[in-house]
Amino acid sequence: MPDDSPWSAPPPCRPLTGDEPLLLDGQPWQGAHVLDFWRWAFSDLRMNNVRGVLAEYIVAKLLYIPLQPRESWNSFDLETPDGIKIEVKAAAYLQAWAQLKPSQIVFTGLRTRPWSPETGYGEEGYGADVYALCLLVESTADLFDPLNLDQWRFWLLSQRQVATMTNNGKSISLARLQRAGLEPYHAGELAEQGVSILHRVLFGNT
88 - beta bridge partners? Predict the structure, then answer.
């Protein structure tokens, strides 16, 4: 039966290897490849937008979540095989620009407006079951390395916790987490116990 819907869906996104060339008149052009683009666009892992995507990748690897090409417009960032939706937020004391002092740590954008091409934006709310708040704790510029997992700390909060702890429902400061007595996890802890920690946060007495 023909599809009478006026909407045309794009084909699924296929993962790239980095070897794909830029083409001009059907031929590879000037030795330019996707890997060159990645190096140009994403080498500075200190940048806020790049660091956030890196944090999503790190959380997925630590929690053994199978990865598909990222969908930036979703109301959550990751989904476990058993359907737990996770939103990842990242912050750091150091940035890619000159600073007089370390940045104040606040995790923002916890409430979002879901979007679909058919209906546009929906009502603002919480789009995930669990929120992973990720902090790069290194405060010495020469040592700062987002690829060093020992420099990251992680808080996993349920949607209920986020709703009760946030400022106007939209942000949580590091000070608020500390006042609540919530200790962060190290990367090694998540790598060893992440799945059980995730389920305890969501279903346990947290």
Answer: 132
The per-residue DSSP string of 96-153 comes to SS--SSPPP-EE---SB--EETTTEE---B---SEEEEEEE----GGG--TT-GGGEE
- 58, two tokens: 């790190």
Tokens representing 127 are 């789009």
**Domain of 193, in residue numbers:** 44-203
pLDDT tens for 131-144 read 999 999 999 999 99
The total number of structural domains in the chain stands at 1
Tell me the one-letter amino acid at 205.
N
Q: How many helices (H) and strands (E) does the chain have?
A: 5, 11
Is 19 a domain residue?
no
In a domain, 32, yes or no: no
Q: Is 35 domain-assigned?
A: no
pLDDT at res. 62: 97
This prediction has a pTM of 0.91
Does any domain span residue 125?
yes
Classify 180 as helix, strand or coil: coil
Q: In this structure, what token pair is assigned to residue 17?
A: 């290897």
CB count in 10 Å sphere of residue 141? 12
